Amino acid sequence: MIGYVECECIIYDAQSLKEKRSVLQSVISRLKNYNLAVSELESQDLWQHTVIGIVTTASSKTACERELQRAVSLIDSRPDIELTRATYEWL
């Protein structure tokens, strides 16, 4: 089973691409510690908007969902980034 979540986020305090990258690198490195594949998919040239793709594999949909929920919870728990939309897909 392959699970995928696309997270659309806003970084309100970013006043430059450098500040955005700082926040994103912190989030991405924390997510990769969970053995997830993570990448910024869209809005690389916008200061305060981003779309992050997160992928995991497991033997069951339940296990995939648990890992992706943990990733979304980590993003949600951070005060410097706001998750505005999360879209899940299963393959």
Structure description:
The protein has helices at 17-32, 61-77; strands at 2-10, 37-42, 49-57, 82-90. The chain is of the alpha+beta class and 91 residues long. The chain has a four-stranded antiparallel beta sheet with strand order 2-3-1-4, covered by helices on one side.
Compute the separation of the termini in Å. 6 Å
Q: Supply the helix-strand structural class.
A: alpha+beta
- Rg, alpha carbons: 13 Å
Q: Shape, please?
A: elongated
Order of helices and strands: EHEEHE
**Percent range for helical residues?**
25-40%
* Structure annotation, total helices: 2
- Main sheet characteristics: 4 strands, antiparallel
Task: Give a short synopsis of this structure.
The protein is built from 2 helices and 4 strands; from the N terminus they run βαββαβ. The protein has 91 residues and is of the alpha+beta class. The model has no long low-confidence stretch (mean pLDDT 92).
Layout of helices and strands:
Layout: E1 2-10, H1 17-32, E2 37-42, E3 49-57, H2 61-77, E4 82-90
Question: What are the key terms here?
Answer:
91 residues, four-stranded antiparallel beta sheet, alpha+beta
